[in-house]
Design a protein that fits this description.
about 300 residues; mainly alpha; Alpha-Beta Plaits; three-stranded mixed beta sheet; about 70% helix
Length: about 300
């Protein structure tokens, strides 16, 4: 993957993070004010979740910027791990927000309070539309640039849409039945959804930080591409790991034992070019050249 290609992908992801940051900041203020003046704790809880969205967008933005830095003496393998670290931070923040909302919802259920104002329902329905639209846009970009942090940020928007929808249902029930606690039960359900989304985001981020191998289909494509290079007789070992937006490949290529060192070097270069042409996200390929040994020779 070229430096220009990486910078373009980082730029796209950064733009979406900034857009999410702006939208979340506005929505957090709107929902907080509507919740306070409209007597809706579900809306206040939703505002708290949106405040977490603001911080998560900042983490994603900074994580992408750091991950795009070139390798140096201090970090010879680059800064790619900053991207899954940002995704892990987003997931952890969701879990913390869900825990806080759960305790506050239980406290509100046990305390008598007024019915929510009808206008809070209109605010929530508008929020659902805005956040679902933002989720689709951000997730599409996250998929296009292969960024787990951007996709995590997108799911944070989706969780906000879900919590807003749950709050809208709770307020509707509260207004219909004249039972104020229905609003708080909706906040409790929303907290569960937020916690589940947080775990689903946190798990793959932690796996990337632990150098989990990419999908088997990716490894199969890389192996087939390397084997198809003229001169390659077999692939003995193949390993790959992700570091942020980049993929690093390490493989052992078996070739004719009679090849000169120069020819073996040239063959390894052709293997590298073939793999990079197959997977645009590949940033590094380490090829170990070995003599091909048939089973008869091995015996």
């Amino acid at each position: 993957m070229t430096a220009d290609g990486l910078s373009q992908r980082v730029a796209r992801g950064t733009r979406m993070a900034k857009l999410g940051l702006l939208v979340n900041a506005v929505l957090a203020i709107v929902k907080l004010l509507a919740g306070i003046f409209g007597n809706s704790y579900a809306l206040i809880a939703d505002a708290i979740e949106s405040s977490g969205d603001v911080l998560s967008s900042i983490f994603v933005w900074r994580g992408l910027r750091v991950s795009a830095r070139s390798a140096d003496e201090r970090y010879p393998f680059g800064y790619g791990k900053a991207e899954p670290m940002a995704a892990a931070a987003v997931g952890l923040m969701l879990v913390v927000a869900a825990t806080f909302i759960t305790f506050e919802s239980i406290r509100e259920i046990r305390m008598p309070h007024h019915l929510p104002a009808p206008f809070t329902l209109i605010v929530l329905l508008a929020v659902v539309v805005v956040k679902e639209t933002l989720f689709r846009s951000v997730f599409a970009v996250g998929t296009a640039v292969a960024s787990g942090a951007v996709r995590a940020d997108a799911w944070h928007h989706r969780s906000d849409a879900i919590t807003s929808a749950a709050a809208a249902i709770g307020i509707s029930v509260a207004l219909w039945t004249k039972i104020p606690q229905a609003d708080d039960w909706a906040a409790l359900v929303a907290a569960l959804v937020i916690a589940i989304n947080g775990v689903l985001i946190l798990r793959p981020a932690m796996e990337d930080l632990m150098d989990r191998a990419p999908d088997p289909q990716v490894l199969e494509r890389i192996s087939a591409t390397a084997t198809a290079v003229p001169g390659v007789l077999a692939i003995e070992k193949l390993r790959a790991r992700r570091a942020g937006l980049s993929l690093y490949v390490d493989l052992h290529v078996q070739a004719d034992p009679e090849l000169s060192l120069q020819d073996a070097h040239a063959l390894s270069g052709r293997v590298k070019s073939a793999i990079r042409g197959l997977e645009p996200t590949v940033d590094g390929v380490l090829v170990h050249m070995e003599p091909f040994v048939t089973p008869v020779d091995a015996g």
